[in-house]
User: Fold this.
Amino acid sequence: MKATKILLVDDHPMVIEGISALLKDETSVEVIGSATTADAALKFLKRTEVDVVLLDINLPDQSGLDVCKHISENHKNSRVIAVSNQSLPSYIQKITENGGSGYLLKNTTKQELLQAIEMVMLGKEYFSHEVIRAIREQKQTSETVTITRREKEILELIADGNTNAVIAEKLFISPSTVDTHRKNLIEKLEVSNTASLIKKAVLLKLIE
Assistant:
């Protein structure tokens, strides 16, 4: 049986060495190259046929999300499995939108990594158990969080960087009312500060 050809793309050489060592004795797969930048990875793909690209999302010269899209559009025979420290639903969604076939976290086991490679080579998708859990939690949260029209207005103005005083002036309400709405939003979204509030609101698509 022909071994699946693997390209490792990660900006940390130790991660590349670790995955290479993990797969070294496996006859079903063969690591034929590695790259620490998006540019190096795309150059490698131009001259060498690869079955599966294990791709880090955070690269120094270009987002792995964009690299995934480029590969899916220009290298039809290569499948992409994202390998990341991040289990953010927005990243997971973007990988699938950009043509990726799977998503693993860097704490994955050798068994799960081999299973993911096997699945995508069969034309299927594979997401690690922790990734699936993150997607479910995000779905459950987005279904249970509801905000009023006024809260949405205030949330959007907060996201634009406006202070309580400016928001109050724009909406013809008192600064204390704005502050009450802000505190209610922080409680509803179960976060601890304004920065986390905005981040989670975007993830839940409460604001663009």
Summary: Residues 129-144 form the longest helix (16 residues).
